[in-house]
Structures are given as C-alpha cells and as structure tokens.
Design goal:
The complex is a heterodimer of chains A (654) and B (140). Chain A is built from 18 helices and 34 strands. With 654 residues, chain A is α/β, with parallel strands linked by helices. The longest helix of chain A has 20 residues. Chain A starts with a strand and ends with a helix. Chain B has 4 helices and 4 strands; from the N terminus they run βαβαβαβα. Chain B has a 4-stranded parallel beta sheet, sandwiched between helices. In chain B, α3 links the parallel β3 and β4. Chain B is globular and about 40 Å long. Classes of the chains: A alpha/beta (654), B alpha/beta (140).
Chain lengths: 654, 140
C-alpha cells in the first residue's frame, strides 16, 4: 500500500493558521504513507497535475488530500485519481480548512488538530476499497397518476419529446377538477375552452395511453425500473366499440344525482360525466343501474347500435414497467360539514365554491343561473365566506389554500355578470392575491363590480322567513353585522385526496401531517421526491392555482425527460452491501430502511443444503444512508465508503 | 484529579447533510471554537453503530457527540429517528456500564446553524472538562 498525502495551503486560508509543512512532515511518518507534500492551491490545475505526477512517479495507490470540505472538491480529486489510473474511490479528504484553520486561532493548537485530522483520513483511506460506479437500465416509459390539468400537461410535454406515457385516472374521464370550473381567474377564460383542447391533444397523441376508471394497485422496483399494477375497473362499456353516440344514456330510465354537477343536477345510470369527456364514452354506475339492481332492464344494451354494452365486464389488472412516475393526483374540497354554525347540510341554500362553479356554468345544472337550491328562485343577495377550513387549526388545516381569495372574487364578479341586480358580500380574514394581475383583479371586483368586502368571521348562519341570516363581525368598523342572504357560498379550502396517504405508502414517498406529498427539497427540488424516479406535479404537493399547477407539471416533465434521455443511469457505488454468508435473514435492515431498498430473498444454501432467506440490496433504490448497517446484529450488511472497517480504523487513531 | 495540561479529546460523528455542513458553515463564517473535537463524517446519524461510541470511549476519548439533522428534517427522512431511539437506550446502558453519561451526547444541528455548532462545542468542551479525563482504560 502506497499512500500519498497532499497538504493544501489554500493561499493563507489554511497556511495562515496551520503549519502545513509540519503537517506534511507528520503525515510522512504515518503507516503506509510513502510520500507527502504541500502546495499552494491543490485544487488548481497545477495542483492536480502535481498529484497526477506523484501518483505516476511513486506508484501511489491511495491518496489523502488535506484541504477544504469534501463537499467542495472531493469530486475534483476523484477525477484526478481516475485520470492517473487509480480507482477514484481510493481517496479521502482531510477537512483542515472549515473544521480547523478557519475556526481556530492558535497556530500550535490548530496544527496539532490538523495532524490529528490527517491521521484519521490516512487510517480511513487504508481501508478504502476500489469501487465501481453502477449502471442501471431505464424503461423509457412514464406513468402519470392523475389525469387532471397537471397530469395532462406533464403528458403533453413528455409526449412532445416522443416518449410513451400512460395516464391512470380513476374517474371515467380525464380533466380533473378544472373540468368542473366555469371561468378561470384573473383572465376569465372559460375553463373548458382552455382545458378541452389539451384533453383532446393527449387523447390523440400516439405516445399517450389513457386508462380511466383505473387506480394504482401496487408499485415495486426503483428508478428506471418500476413495476406497476393498475386496476382497470369494469366500465361495462367496451371503449373499442363505443362511438359515444348517446343512444344509451338518452334512453336510460334510472336517474341519480350527478357528482360532476355537485349533486345540483341529475344524470342517468349510464352516463358521460360531462359532454367533452375524454374518452367520449359512457360508464355504467352499477350501484344505480336497474339491470344490476334487478336484472330487469337492459335497455342500453338493446339500443346500442355498436354492441358496446357489456354487463359481464370484469375488473382488469394491468402490469406494466415504467422508468419514472409523476404523481399528479390533485386535491379535494375541504369537508366543511364540521362548521355547523354555517348551516351546511341543514340549509339547502348554503353551498360551496364548487357548487357555485357548476351553477354559473352555462352548461351546468341551472343553465348558468344562480338559483337557490331550496326553491329554484334566483339569488340576489349572496354572502361568500372565505377561509372555510383553511387557516383554522381548530377545525381545519393550518395552511392557506392560496386560491380561495381569487376564486371568491371571481364568483362575486360572475354573480354580477349573471344578474345585474345581485349583490355580493364577502367575509374575509385577509385578502391574499399574490400573482400576476391578481391584486388588480380583486380591486376591480371591489371597485367596479360593487362587491362588499367585510373583514371578519361569520359567527352563525340561520334561516328566518325564507332568508338566510348571516351574522358576523366587521372588525374594521367594529360593528356586528347581519345580512339577509338568498344564498351563502362557503369558500372551502383545498385538502389532500382522502386516500393520499395510502397512495404515498404504495409509492414509498413521504407525506406531511396534512397528507400532502413532500417534495425532496422545499426550495431547490420542488418537483422531486426523495424516492428517486418519482416526481410531483400540481396540488397533491400543496394547494396551487392553475398557472402554478401547469408550471410544476412541466417541471416534473422536464425532470423525467432528463432521466429518460440517459442511456443508462449512473449510480454512486456508496451503497449498502450484504454478506450473504453472515446474513441471518432477521429482517432488521428491511425494517430500518427508509427507502424500501432491501428485499428478502430466498437462496439455496449449499453448505446447509437447504433454502434460507437473506437480505438483498436493490442497488437502484439504495441511497447509502447506512441505517441498515447500524441495526444489523450479524454485521452482515455494510456501507461502501463508510464501512465498519473504515470507521473502526479511524477510531483506532483517536 | 485533573491532570496538568489535560484537554478533552472529543469525537464527533456528524451526518453529512446537516451537522457536517453546519460545522462547515461555522468555518466559512469564522466562528471560533475550541480545537478539542475531531469530526468523523457519516452519511446519516442513523449510520452510527453503538459499537463506534463504545470503541471511542474504550480508546480513551473523553467525550462522544452524535449530531444529525433536526428531527423531521432528516435527509433520509427517518434516519435520525432511528438514531435518537437507539442512543437514548445507549446512554442508559453507558451509565449501567459505569461510564459518566455526560461523555455521550446527541445534538441536532442544521446546515444553516454554524453559530449553534460553535456554541455547542464550547459548551460541550466545558461539560467534558467538568467530567474530567476518561480513565476507563486505566492508563495514566
């Protein structure tokens, strides 16, 4: 073993406090150190050339560089070793700048400490092992979970780069929440007008496959090679035969409330959720279908000119491989029923923002008229209550849902547009209109459309003489206020989907206390998760408006493309490794691994002449955290680069 | 009982992502602290085997520190939970073995807490000084 020790002056950064010559001299006396020297700037080209020359000249096989923190130049020096024909993992950095010369003043003390640091590094490098970078193949196909605007945008971007995409959507149509919206702030484009062309684009792309009525059953594998089981629920309509002519749903005798219209309207048991649905084919709601309930109808099958109705259709499990996954499962509206004081559920004329969206939509259940659900009369005085669920740790969530101020302002404007005599009252806590042209929009609603904004909370909503009495405080004037309203609209916040935690567990991605999925870094990696190969788009990460959702969807797509464009994925070899002979199969590492990077595998033990179970590290998934090594009772699992031997060797030199 | 000129010898196991970077920041910000601690870089506080701590103390280290990311901020999402649980047990065990529990400490220092790191080491060195030299190995 021939170790070379190279001590950097870093100008005066190190040499000003540490006697570098003394350090080099002390290093030369350590076991296996064949050469040591100092140089002004070891990371500079001449500095690296010096290391290269000495490696060649003295036939060094290991190197210690005493310089700055390894985060800065470890890679530089690894490259230098590689160029000189030495395995790049046979180097250690002794951090004598950040951890020594910069934090101590006394030269003698600092020099003594620097020597101690170098001793530890030399001890470690003597136990370093040559490692090879690992490469894993990549399945060049992407799974997108959720077919709302986020999933659609990601799919369009990836398909544009000609990589195949599969969208899994649990509803019968893609489009998500945006399809339910009427107009979008702050430009008032109609949501359908900007969304449906994108829906058509994805559905017509030869690179995109859409599975509707489908959910994720199981995910295994790792970046580059995920295996996913998708449950395609029985639609009872053969998509290959159906032409979407409408004969079936026009004749269907069973009526039920439409979820798409927030139960303000009715639909048939065989239905398309909305006219521009993609795929443009109906689905049978078996819970309400007379054939499924009584076996005595079958009209849709009789009238279908294409023979597309299949009552015997079963759920189907599709297993596919993917290189990357984008989670774009969006949000759901906060369940405001916990606010009993607002009378939701008790009074028909207390509705939510999403109900209002359907109402003002010209193709909605009321044909675009703002009508009281109780008596069908046109609503004139409408009270909007903001922050329902948001910013309320007692009953709701602590965060601000970010979009409610804007959508409420939009509702106030649309109300006036639909009925000139109407009057909007908005109870708010703060107006949060941060976004391009957002503040201007709210101001315009207040100034030009006469919406009355009242800063304060509503204490109670109750019925009196056919009107809803809204009692609240105006904290600006200090007055108690009572408004006789025809309709009350609750700006319910945005929360995670009810089964978000379950999906996160299936995907092995972390989620927060609100069940929102956690990004890899809140600022610098907002589209990634800590699970390599799994990305986030849209409101499943936190509430977002449409522009932000589209931006994150494209960000996730860009990250995915950066991955797929590689021929092979390079992985650092600093990962866990199992010695099968020692492994007792106790599963302690399996339980401790935060990344599910350990699989238990049955092997044939030739000596024992029987099968036994051992741990196996999934190279593509292991991040090299080493938590497995600390729990192993047999010392069978070890971490390359930070092995027990390496650390123990260091501890021998303390 | 303190020997003339004795200075504590402390070993710190620092996770690469938070505490090691926090100690780097203390350096970049020139926040002085006593030179009694030698740092061993590990990927995660959860990587530290209890045996490493024992080995330090058996080899005559006067103090051992394990420092990781703040609870909830672990780079590997849950490694520091494992560490916290494991070393709470070890601390009790060291006491049982007749080792002064002051010699073994844990801390959570983030990459932005250079000042906390510097302050922590100052306090730790003082505390180990009051504990005196580790004479478990019996040599004088």
């Amino acid at each position: 073993m021939k170790i070379g020790v190279f001590v950097c002056h870093c100008g005066t950064n190190i040499a000003g406090t540490v006697d570098v010559e003394k350090v080099a001299k002390a290093a030369s006396g350590l076991a296996n150190v064949k050469y040591s020297t100092t140089y002004k700037y070891m990371c500079s080209s001449p500095g690296q050339a010096l290391i290269w020359d000495v490696i060649k000249e003295k036939a060094l096989d290991r190197v210690v560089v005493c310089a700055c923190s390894p985060g800065l130049h470890e890679k530089t020096f690894r490259k230098c070793l590689e160029d000189a024909g030495v395995n790049p993992y046979l180097i250690e950095i002794a951090n004598i700048r950040e951890h020594c010369s910069w934090v101590h003043r006394d030269m003698e003390q600092a020099t003594r400490k620097a020597i101690a640091i170098v001793k530890l590094a030399v001890a470690k490098v003597s136990r370093d092992k040559p490692l090879e970078k690992t490469y894993i193949s990549i399945e060049k196909k992407v799974l997108i979970i959720g077919g709302g605007i986020a999933g659609i945008q990601s799919a369009i971007d990836i398909a544009f780069a000609k990589y195949p995409v599969v969208i899994v959507e649990r509803e019968p149509s893609i489009g998500g929440k945006m399809a339910q919206f009427d107009k979008t702030f702050p430009t008032l484009d109609c949501a359908a007008c900007i969304l449906t062309p994108k829906m058509v684009t994805v559905s017509q792309s030869k690179y995109v496959t859409i599975h509707t009525c489908s959910e994720i059953e199981e995910v295994s594998g790792h970046v580059g090679n995920f295996t996913v089981k998708i449950r395609k629920k029985a639609r009872s309509v053969d998509l290959k035969k159906c032409a979407g002519c409408g004969a079936c749903w026009n004749k269907c005798p069973a009526k039920t409330a439409s979820q798409f219209d927030m139960k303000l309207g009715k639909r048939t048991a065989i239905y398309v959720p909305f006219p521009q649905a993609v795929p443009n084919a109906p689905v049978i709601d078996r819970g309400n279908c007379l054939y499924f309930k009584t076996k005595k109808c079958g009209i849709c099958q009789k009238v279908c000119p294409f023979g597309a109705i299949d009552y015997d259709m079963q759920d189907e499990i599709i297993e596919e491989k993917f290189g990357a996954i984008i989670v774009a499962t969006g949000f759901t509206q906060f369940d405001h029923s916990v606010y009993g004081e607002y009378g939701y559920g008790k009074y028909k004329d207390v509705i939510t923002g999403l109900h209002f969206e359907r109402m003002v939509n010209s193709s909605g259940p009321t044909g675009g008229k703002v009508l009281r659900p109780s008596d069908g009369k046109e609503a004139k005085d409408v009270v909007f209550i903001q922050c329902v669920g948001s910013r309320d740790e007692q009953k709701g969530v602590s965060y601000c849902s970010r979009v409610c101020c804007m959508y409420t302002a939009k509702h106030a404007l649309l109300l006036k547009e639909h009925n000139k005599d109407a009057q909007a009252y908005v109870f708010y806590i703060d107006i949060r209109a941060a976004g391009k042209n957002y503040e201007e929009f709210v101001k315009n609603v207040q100034d030009k459309h006469g919406a009355v904004y009242l800063r304060g909370r509503v204490s109670r909503v109750f019925e009196k003489g056919g009107k809803l009495i809204v009692r609240g405080a105006d904290t600006l004037s200090g007055a108690q206020i009572e408004i006789q309203a025809d309709l009350v609209v609750l700006a319910a916040g945005l929360v995670a989907q009810p089964d978000a935690a379950k999906l996160a567990q299936t995907m092995h991605i972390p989620y927060d206390k609100n069940n929102l999925f956690t990004e890899a870094h809140p600022k610098l990696a907002p589209a990634e998760t800590i699970t390599s190969g799994v990305f986030l788009a849209g409101a499943c990460q936190s509430p977002k408006d449409i522009p932000d959702t589209v931006a994150t969807a494209s960000a996730a797509a860009a990250k995915v493309l950066g991955l797929l464009v590689q021929d092979k994925l390079e992985r650092e070899p600093l990962i866990a490794k199992v010695d099968r002979i020692l492994c007792s199969g106790c599963k302690a590492c399996y339980e401790a691994c935060p990344f599910h990077a350990i699989e238990m595998k049955e092997i044939e033990d030739r000596q024992l002449k029987r099968k036994r179970t051992v741990a196996e590290v999934l190279e593509g998934v292991c991040t090299g955290c080493g938590n497995c090594t600390a729990v192993c009772r047999m010392s069978a699992i070890d971490l390359e680069g930070f092995s027990n031997r390496q650390i123990m060797e260091q501890l021998g030199e303390i | 009982m303190t020997k003339e000129g004795w200075e504590p010898n402390i070993i710190g196991f620092l996770c690469n992502w938070c505490s090691y970077a926090g100690a780097d920041l203390a350096g970049t910000s020139r926040m002085e602290y006593p030179p009694n601690i030698k740092i061993i870089r590990v990927p995660c506080s959860g990587r530290v085997n209890p045996l490493f701590v024992l080995k330090c103390l058996m080899n005559g280290a006067d103090g051992v520190l394990i420092s990781g990311c703040h609870i909830g901020d672990c780079h590997y999402s849950e490694g520091n939970f494992h560490a916290r649980r494991r070393f709470a047990v070890l601390k009790r065990f060291l006491e049982y073995l007749g080792l002064d529990p002051r010699r073994f400490q844990m801390s959570w220092v983030s990459a932005s807490e250079g000042d906390k790191w510097s302050k922590l080491i100052k306090e730790l060195v003082e505390e180990i000084k009051t504990a005196g030299p580790n004479e478990v190995t019996g040599d004088d």
